[in-house]
């Protein structure tokens, strides 16, 4: 069975500082990895994905993530945080078989202080 | 273009009532997913359609949950004899499988179900 761990319930960072939101995964075979962001009373918005190729993937709003196969991690990063980045972030994984369901982590709340 | 829409946005049901939740996917998306998100948790997979075929229903928690997509576009998630533990946000997502690398799912705003 596949699983995702987001070890931090909340991450606090000052505006302008770099941010990292951690994610590790477990899956059979090669993983397909995703980050989503959720704002209050809104659905999940897709940020970025890793399917194959370059381990560093860039996504929306200046976010990027690094796929590390040996550490089974896919940490989300941004060089300079904005107050508007404050939201709930979810990491998700699916395997490369025909099963298309995503397995999500429990989420990390990012709080960016002005 | 228009995203995934869901209705109603909020639903309050008395324990034992039946409810029906609607999802309109992005036009042309052949794949449709339902997820359940309990308070403070990540979404959990319920079921998946490719066009009108329900290919995976392994996440449905009981036989009180039923989903359909008869014409391969709009989908309805039905919960019979609702229980308090059914209270959650129900998220619908769609994706296009025409592009083999386009695996991301696009989510609607969700329906918040409260069972009293």
Q: Can you put this structure into words, describing what you see?
A:
The complex is a heterodimer of chains A (114) and B (116). Chain A has strands at residues 3-5, 10-14, 19-21, 24-26, 31-38, 44-50, 56-58, 64-68, 73-78, 87-95, 103-104, 108-113. In chain A, a hairpin with a 4-residue loop joins strand 8 and strand 9. Chain A is mainly β and 114 residues long. Chain A is globular, with a radius of gyration of 14 Å. Chain B is an all-beta fold and 116 residues long. Helices cover 0% and strands 47% of the residues of chain B. Chain B is built from no helices and eleven strands. Chain A binds chain B through residues 4, 32, 34, 36, 41-46, 49, 51, 90, 92, 94, 99-107, and chain B through 4, 31, 33, 35, 40-45, 48, 56, 58-59, 91, 93, 95, 101, 103-110.
Layout of helices and strands:
The complex is a heterodimer of chains A (about 110) and B (about 120).
Chain A: E1 3-5, E2 10-14, E3 19-21, E4 24-26, E5 31-38, E6 44-50, E7 56-58, E8 64-68, E9 73-78, E10 87-95, E11 103-104, E12 108-113
Parallel strand pairs in A: 2-12
Antiparallel strand pairs in A: 1-4, 3-9, 5-6, 5-10, 7-8, 8-9, 10-11, 10-12
Chain B: E1 5-7, E2 10-13, E3 19-24, E4 31-37, E5 44-50, E6 53-56, E7 65-68, E8 75-79, E9 88-95, E10 106-107, E11 111-115
Parallel strand pairs in B: 2-11
Antiparallel strand pairs in B: 1-3, 3-8, 4-5, 4-9, 5-6, 7-8, 9-10, 9-11
Relative helix content of chain B: under 10%
Mean pLDDT of chain B: 93
Beta strand count of chain A:
12
Q: Please give the count of helices of chain A.
A: 0
How far from one another are the termini of chain A? 41 Å
Radius of gyration of chain B: 14 Å
- Binned strand content of chain B: over 45%
How does the helix and strand content of chain B classify structurally?
A: mainly beta
SSE pattern of chain A: EEEEEEEEEEEE
């Amino acid at each position: 069975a596949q699983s995702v761990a987001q070890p931090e319930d909340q991450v606090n960072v000052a505006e302008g500082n770099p941010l990292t939101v951690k994610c590790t995964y477990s899956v059979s075979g090669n993983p397909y990895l995703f980050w989503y962001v959720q704002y209050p009373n809104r659905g999940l918005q897709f940020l970025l994905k890793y399917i194959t190729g370059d381990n560093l993937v860039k996504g929306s709003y200046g976010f990027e993530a690094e796929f590390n196969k040996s550490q089974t991690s896919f940490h989300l990063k941004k060089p300079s945080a904005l107050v508007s980045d404050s939201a709930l972030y979810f990491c998700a994984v699916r395997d490369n078989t025909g099963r298309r369901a995503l397995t999500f982590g429990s989420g990390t709340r990012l709080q960016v202080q002005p | 273009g228009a995203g995934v829409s869901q209705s109603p946005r909020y639903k309050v049901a008395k324990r034992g009532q039946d409810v029906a939740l609607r999802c309109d996917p992005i036009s042309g998306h052949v794949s449709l997913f339902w997820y359940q998100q309990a308070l403070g948790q990540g979404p959990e997979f319920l079921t998946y359609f490719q066009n009108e075929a329900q290919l995976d229903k392994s996440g449905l928690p009981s036989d009180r949950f039923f989903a359909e997509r008869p014409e391969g576009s709009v989908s309805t998630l039905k919960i019979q004899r609702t229980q308090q533990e059914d209270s959650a946000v129900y998220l619908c997502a769609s994706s296009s499988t025409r592009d083999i690398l386009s695996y991301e799912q696009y989510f609607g705003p969700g329906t918040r179900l409260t069972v009293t």
